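[User] Could I get a sequence and C-alpha cells?

[Assistant]
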Amino acid sequence: AIPEFRDTLIQHLESVKKLIDERAQHKREYDRWVNERHMETTEEKIDTSKALNASLVDTESSGTKSK
C-alpha cells in the first residue's frame, strides 16, 4: 500500500508542477501583452499631443498672417 501511495503522490506532485509551470507561462505572456499595450497607448498619447501642438502652432501662425 505504501509504494502505491508514494507513486500516486509523485504523480499528483508532477501534475501540480506542470500546472504551476503552465500558469507561470500564461502569466509571462499576459504581462508581455499588457506591457506592449501600455507602450502602444503611451505612443498614441505622444502622437496625439504632437498633433495637438502642431495644430496650435498652425492656428497661431495663420492668425498672424490674416492681420
Notes: Helices lie at 2-65.
